[in-house]
Design a protein that fits this description.
The complex is a heterodimer of chains A (about 375) and B (about 500). Chain A is of the alpha/beta class. Chain A contains 15 helices and eight strands. Chain A folds into two domains: about 1-60 and about 255-325, no CATH class; about 60-245, Alpha-Beta Complex (Lambda Exonuclease, Chain A), CATH 3.90.320. Helices cover about 50% and strands about 15% of the residues of chain A. The longest helix of chain A has 30 residues, at about 60-90. Chain B has two domains: about 5-315, no CATH class; about 340-450, Beta Barrel (Elongation Factor Tu (Ef-tu), domain 3). In chain B, strands 14-15-16-13-10-17 form a six-stranded antiparallel sheet. In chain B, strands 4-3-2-7-8 form a five-stranded mixed sheet, sandwiched between helices. Chain B has a two-stranded antiparallel ribbon with strand order 1-9. In chain B, β5 and β6 (about 105-110) form a beta hairpin. In chain B, α2 (about 70-90) crosses α4 (about 150-160) and α3 (about 120-135) runs antiparallel to α4 (about 150-160). The longest helix of chain B has 30 residues, at about 250-280. Chain B starts with a helix and ends in a 5-residue tail after the last helix. Classes of the chains: A alpha/beta (about 375), B alpha+beta (about 500). At the A-B interface, α5, α13, α14 and α15 of A face α1, α3, α6, α9 and α13 of B. Bound molecules: iron/sulfur cluster. The site of iron/sulfur cluster has 12 residues of chain A, from α3 and α12. Chain A: It comes from Streptosporangium carneum. Chain A: This is Secreted protein.
């Protein structure tokens, strides 16, 4: 199966999952197109660009700088500041802490190095606290192992682990932007699950990883960090359910034509040589499930939106609209029922009556 | 969202242009609103980068922070903003009227109030945070600021808070105001882009709605309406301009940043005034004035509080304050929904669709019908209404009607599209109903179980009257040195 996935990706290294991809995993699990692209490690951003629908996800240098400065501050001197925060937050009697930067070993070794470190920590239940910076986790996504390079620190004391996530959005008077907190919690849940899976694989109790993650953000308008515990049990449950539901990749592979590939066929300088048209056609062979939420979560969004427009699907307007239309998925169909130009199919009478009444009411009021 | 709106969205797609979802305007629109478009430094909560502000479409004032990480420049920006905003606000305090209150002291109310328009809800959040970050500053001590800075901070906080109040028009967002009156052929997420939303509502000559909206998504043609700037612009234009200022803080360097920001703000400035024109062209709903009266009252009270030297708003509401606020918001929400339905047949249609309202023609009337004998004899006119609506109201239900203020009735019977009603209120005090108070045969009427008695319902006590059982009156918030000297990076 891995051979088939490699073929889909083409002769380039598998694209690692970044923070957005990780958070988005749980966003649209019913979409076969993304499941396949992700499982094969296809660079979706490049793919979207090549077919002429780049995703509108630029990042401002100001925001990047700000994020880096804050992260560096928190991690300064072997995470000294972080230790102070954790001591207060978790009520820990720690005075000393070890610091292991997994990034110090080569990229190819990071995953096994992370495993070895975590295994040792769990086995020896070391009494000294240790921070593990830049760990490389793996997670089974849609039947395929994906590597996660989280911007997080794992903290261990006495064989118990916490995921620590550093974010540069401000907490003002004890409140942060709810959307950003929700996003951070969704991401952190992925890491908790990955670390738990790792412990289980190594034969340890996965529950040693706390479902309370530590969120570190700047407080008010200063750069001083503050730490909060965020319970991600709910996000974990959603994630587990959605990962389980995500159609298994082998089943997805069964449905696609022989020889299909998303290979950009880069030349020696990495410039794609494959025609955009051909690539677009290949993409359309795998069914998508567009929703407006894609616009903030998936690199393929502009391409899929264009396709959905062509299909005249009510998905374009969002779930809520479709619900209001009694679940009717085609725009022409809904309008036809409303205007009485279309006979309702069997079982559709109730919906048709509602739409017809709504249409008459609109006409009466706008006359 | 309702089936009617969903249908309007489908029509918008088919016709290639936004569709009306109201027949009147439901927000107040001042003769001279102040448009304010703030831009924020990416990655920061409340660091202003620049703004365009003013009441004259032809003369916007551009404010710029050439290096937003510099605390002094940030406060200089706020002081400059105060120079524009405070005189506008304070101008409305000059003329007042005396309001006689039943069973209460008469009080003063400003004849008119300021209205600030921003592009979107994120701008409101920014206004709130800018207020939060400036209202505790002091004019003396370690980091002194101009006296106008904390004052502006209090006003910005007030406006941001007030905008959470359903039906208030003191601080409006263009996207929400437009979205409340038109349905486009795109999702709510896409409607959050002011240029795209206006593209659907009012496409330029020779363009369709979707065509204009698509063009509006290109940040090079239509820069975002803020407070977030386009990342591409940050990286290619603004970043280098700010660095040039850091290296040599000259007039020219400031002008370069200003020029860059102007290109981002001017298109939105035009869109804001276009939004004003479009909204103004709609006839105003009958109860908009009532809500504006409430806004004027609220504004006047806050103005008095400021004039009397009251402290800035607390960092957080006390328990009673928070409960009172929530209850107030809920009441306002319910009341606003009802008022809109009463003012607008197209909004009322949503309730007709769910069976909470019906419209029809009066087929019979017995205006002198009475109930009871002797002293308890009461005038209870009966009418019968023929309707095609699916009525889901049961006998005994109390209903009101948008056709007559103060009118109330009770459902007596609903049979086969014929509704019999007993009129209980609004006929005057005589033995026979006052003229015009009972609908006559042939008249078209609307009745609904939605009623707006929320206003009169008992509110929570004023905080200072909090009973001891509930902890007694809260201690007045006194800002501390810590608030004033709060660290800023
Ligand atoms: S944008 Fe396309 S590929 Fe991505 S999740 Fe949505 S439908 Fe699937």
């Amino acid at each position: 199966m891995n051979g088939r996935l490699d073929e889909l990706r083409g002769p380039v290294p598998s694209h690692p999952h970044d923070a957005r991809a990780i958070a988005a995993l749980a966003a649209n699990p019913g979409c076969a197109r993304r499941a396949l692209l992700d499982a094969a490690g296809v660079d979706k951003d490049r793919t979207a660009r090549h077919v002429g629908f780049p995703a509108p996800f630029g990042q401002s240098q100001f925001a990047i700088t700000r994020g880096n400065v804050f992260e560096a501050l928190v991690k300064e001197n072997g995470c000294a500041e972080l230790l102070r925060l954790l001591r207060e937050l978790l009520g820990l009697p720690v005075s000393e802490v070890g610091y292991q930067d997994v990034e110090n070993v080569g990229a190819h070794l990071r995953h096994s190095h992370t495993r070895a470190l975590i295994d040792r920590a769990a086995r020896e239940s070391e009494e000294t606290a240790v921070f593990y910076d830049h760990p490389l986790f793996s997670l089974e996504i849609a039947g395929h192992t994906s590597y996660l390079e989280p911007d997080v620190v794992a903290f261990q004391l006495g064989g118990r682990f916490h995921i620590v996530e550093i974010k540069s959005f401000g907490v003002i008077d004890g409140q942060a932007e709810p959307q950003k907190v929700a996003g951070a919690a969704r991401q952190a849940a992925v890491y908790v699950l990955a670390l738990r899976t790792l412990l289980a694989e190594l034969g340890h109790d996965p529950e040693r990883v706390s479902h309370d993650v530590v969120l570190v953000c700047p407080e008010n308008f200063a750069n001083r960090p503050t730490a909060t515990l965020v319970d991600v049990r709910k996000q974990l449950a959603v994630l587990r359910r959605q990962l389980a539901r995500m159609t298994r990749v082998d089943r997805l592979l069964e449905g696609i034509p022989e020889g299909l590939t998303f290979d950009l066929a880069p030349d020696r300088d990495g410039v794609p040589t494959r025609s955009a048209q051909e690539l677009a056609e290949a993409l359309c062979q795998v069914p998508a499930r567009y929703a407006p939420d894609c616009l903030s979560t998936c690199d393929m969004c502009m391409f899929c939106r264009d396709e959905a427009r062509g299909n005249g699907s009510t998905d374009l307007l969002g779930r809520q609209v479709r619900d209001e239309l009694g679940g009717v998925s085609g725009m022409a169909e809904a309008l036809g029922l409303a205007e009485g130009t279309l006979e309702p199919a069997e079982g559709q009478e109730e919906v048709a009556r509602l739409l017809r009444t709504a249409n008459l009411l609109r006409e009466e009021c706008l006359r | 969202m309702s089936a009617l709106t969903a249908l309007a969205q489908l029509r918008a797609i088919r016709d290639g242009i936004a569709q009306p979802i109201t027949t009147v305007r439901h927000c107040h629109l001042a003769p001279h609103p102040m448009v304010f478009i703030p831009l924020r430094l990416a990655g920061e909560a409340a660091a202003p980068m620049g703004a365009m502000v003013g009441t004259d479409p032809g003369h916007p004032r551009l404010l710029v922070v050439p290096q937003p990480r510099n605390r002094d420049l940030r406060f200089a920006f706020t002081a400059e903003l105060a120079e524009v905003v405070l005189p506008y606000i304070e101008g409305f305090g000059k003329t007042t009227e005396t309001i006689e209150k039943k069973g209460g002291e008469p009080y003063e109310r400003c004849l008119d109030a300021p209205q600030i328009l921003v592009p979107n809800p994120q701008a409101v959040t920014f206004v709130g945070l800018l207020g939060r970050s400036t209202r505790f500053r002091r004019v003396d001590g370690p980091y002194p600021v101009h006296p106008s800075v904390p004052l502006l901070g209090r006003w910005l906080t007030y406006f941001a808070d007030r905008s959470q109040h359903p039906g208030s028009s003191l601080l409006l967002t263009a996207t929400e105001a437009l979205g409340a009156h038109w349905a486009t052929g795109q999702s709510g997420l896409e409607d959050a882009n002011l240029a795209a939303l206006l593209g659907w509502i009012d496409p330029p000559e020779g363009m369709t709605g979707p065509g204009a909206a698509e063009e509006a998504e290109d940040p090079l043609l239509w820069p975002p309406a803020g407070p977030a700037t386009d990342p591409g612009f940050d990286n290619e234009v603004l970043g280098p301009a700010v660095r040039a200022y850091e290296e040599a803080p000259t007039e020219r360097a400031v002008e370069r940043v200003a020029q860059a920001l102007r290109t981002q703000l001017e298109p939105t400035w035009r869109l804001m005034w276009r939004s004003v024109e479009l909204l103004r062209a709609l006839p105003e709903g009958a109860r908009v004035k009532d809500r504006w009266d409430v806004d004027r009252g609220s504004f006047t009270r806050f103005l008095e509080r400021v004039t009397e030297g009251g402290p800035p708003q607390a960092r957080r509401d006390g328990a009673v304050g928070a409960a009172a606020r929530l209850a107030g918001l809920e009441r306002a929400r319910a009341s606003y929904d009802v008022q809109r339905a009463y003012d607008d047949p197209l909004v009322m249609a949503e309730y007709r669709l769910t069976g909470e309202a019906f419209a029809g023609t009066v087929t019979a009337a017995d205006p002198e019908h009475t109930e009871g004998e002797g002293r308890s004899r009461k005038l209870r006119p009966l009418i019968t209404v023929r309707t095609e609506d699916q009525v889901r109201l049961t006998p005994g239900a109390t209903v009101g009607s948008p056709d007559r203020r103060g009118h109330a009735a009770e459902i007596v019977e609903v049979v086969d599209g014929e509704v019999t009603l007993k009129i209980t209120k609004g006929m005057g005090r005589g033995r026979t109903p006052s003229p015009g108070s009972v609908p006559e045969p042939g008249e078209r009427v609307t009745y609904t179980s939605l009623t707006d008695d929320f206003q009169s319902s008992a509110a929570l006590p004023d905080p200072e009257l909090t009973p001891w059982t509930h902890g007694g009156p809260p201690q007045e918030y006194v800002p501390s040195d810590e608030d004033a000297q709060e660290e800023w990076s």
